[in-house]
Amino acid sequence: MKVKQRSVCQTCRTRKLGCDGKRPECSQCVLTGRRCDGYQSDWTFVLQNDHSSTSSSVSKQRDTRMVTPQEKREKLVISGLSRNRFQVTGAGVEASLLPGPVLNPTRPLWDDLLGLVVECYIPEDEMTSITNFTDSKRSRICGSWMAVLPKILGKSDRDCVLRATIRALATSILSQNPQMGGSSLDRVESYDAAIQAVRKGLTVSGYAFHAVFIAAIMCIALAEIMFPDSAIAFTAHVNGIGHILQTQHVEQYRSGVFHALFVGFRPILIVQAFRCRQPTFLASEPWIRVPFSAYRLSPMQSLLSEAAAIPSLLQQIDMLLYDPCQSSSHDVTNLVRYFVVALDNLQNWEIRLRTENTEPHYWSVSPDTQATGASLHDGYIWYPNITMANVYTHLWAFRIICLSEISKLIYLPSFIHGNQLSSWQFDFNNIQEDMIALPKQICMSMEYLIQDGMRLFGPASTFFPLQTAYRAFQMDEPRQRENIARTEGIVDRLIKKGLQSAPHIVFA
């Protein structure tokens, strides 16, 4: 007689397919995008050494029975997760007390994975604004693209790629806290499955530009920053997103899901252009104007529009410095002039921002030395919200880069020194002073961005400003060793937050 195997899910049993028996969903169903109907079982699990009454035992059996996949909620949950299964803390995600010793409570159901990712990534003060995000509103933070994930998760076979990458991101988050039962093995297995799903999606005609595929690459890119030594892979995913976005006309990103995804990816792509010192297509006039023609830009997006052309200047200076003997004084002087203009544009942009919003954009605070262990002479810069924190830390980073490049150029033999500099209305004597003051302001802002309520988005948004500040300090290393040590201490805290790639990105 053939024995009915309990390790085959109901979906594979009905379709007469091979099944690996993985729980809560088998690999066959995950990769094909089918709904896994789970594993039929009448077993119950009873706690050992239970000497209570019969009625109490029955009650405990009911509480401790296996939770089957049929009991999953059909609707994806964004809010309420931390109140039910998980508690998000500064150290990561912790398991809350469950009503009963449910079998293997450390493996969340699929319906909770998306909620877990959103709640662990989006700052708590921004949760309401992103869940209510519509085209008529401007997104306050660049991470609001996660709010559209439930909208693009349907029931087609395409979903298996996005589901696989969301699972990889979720297990990467869970693996940072042993109390949740997440393991490095789970993280690696989920990551490998996600990479395989993405590769498979690339072979399907017309699939690479589908919204779920673009979101999937973004999810896997975020998972990368949870791994050590993953800076190169992260860069590859970001470059891939840029190539995919360019395959469609810019009008595609004016509204709807694609606009929300574009808003989320644009900052990463422009920052990547700064890191690679290469021009970006996002600096062209149509890509600045059209995607935001439906409604007003957020302050961060407006700043990025102002700074998007600077990477092109960085490429020009690299070409010039590659063979400085061949560069003419005219070339060098023009490049200096371009960077001075870029600095003036950034300053004028800040003036316009302060005119539009007269409330304080940031202020200095004294540290709680008992709580933070900070030195008495240390101070912090505090902000009304994370939007302003991101705006000013990136604004100062852009200024540092311009000042650094000007400093390189004016010491070239071919640069013309003389009375003509006075006509530029730029004080070249204060460059070195500003290049130390601005990095200090960035470091003073880190306490705000890495506080517990900022979840993962706040700490992850520190990478580029912190990298810029660190490089500025290194240019004057003998006198900036204390600030370098302070920056390294901040990176150590980012690692403890779960961002294992922080040292490889910041110190690269």
UniProtKB/TrEMBL annotation:
Molecular function GO terms recorded: DNA binding; DNA-binding transcription factor activity, RNA polymerase II-specific; zinc ion binding
Segments traversing the membrane: 207-227
Keyword DNA-binding belongs to the record: yes
Keywords: DNA-binding, Membrane, Nucleus, Transcription, Transcription regulation, Transmembrane, Transmembrane helix
Stored PROSITE patterns: ZN2_CY6_FUNGAL_1 (PS00463), ZN2_CY6_FUNGAL_2 (PS50048)
InterPro entries: Osmoadaptation_assoc, Zn2-C6_fun-type_DNA-bd_sf, Zn2Cys6_DnaBD
Source superkingdom: Eukaryota
Zn(2)-C6 fungal-type domain location: 8-36
PANTHER family linked: ZN(2)-C6 FUNGAL-TYPE DOMAIN-CONTAINING PROTEIN, ZN(2)-C6 FUNGAL-TYPE DOMAIN-CONTAINING PROTEIN-RELATED
The protein's name in its UniProt record: Zn(2)-C6 fungal-type domain-containing protein
Organism: Aspergillus glaucus CBS 516.65
